[in-house]
Model the fold of this input.
Amino acid sequence: MSLFDQINADLTTAMKAREKEKTAALRNIKKVLIEAKTASSSHELDDTEVIKIIQKLAKQGTDSANLYKEQGREDLAAEEMVQVAVFEDYLPKKLTDEELTAAVKAIIEKTGASSIKEMGKVMGMASKELAGKADGKDIADKVKALLA
Done:
């Protein structure tokens, strides 16, 4: 079952269970996925594209929640974080710091990079291999630390 189909099934289940927050979050995901599907030339979105879209929604929600907290609107921040929690259920598990270090070391060995000048080559490969599993900033920081 594709991730898109799983989201549709979970939306139906959430609606039947009258889970208001989860239903709203899943409707939001479905809306954005349908928009992306109609905007792209291919009619089907594969799971990697769906994950990228959900990651973007989660990041936007987290940023909005932080903004609401700065403005003293804890009620709106809490609503955003509930939606972000639903989004994160559909994302792959994030790598721990040790797992990220090991993965970046393996990529550095594959590319044969030995200095910080070759960071671009390592980042290109690392971004593809670790997409969805680690934040780009964390990957870049780890690559810099290991190549320095």
Remarks:
- The mean pLDDT is 87.
- The two ends are 43 Å apart (CA to CA).
- The longest helix spans residues 47-70.
- The chain has two domains: 3-88, 97-147.
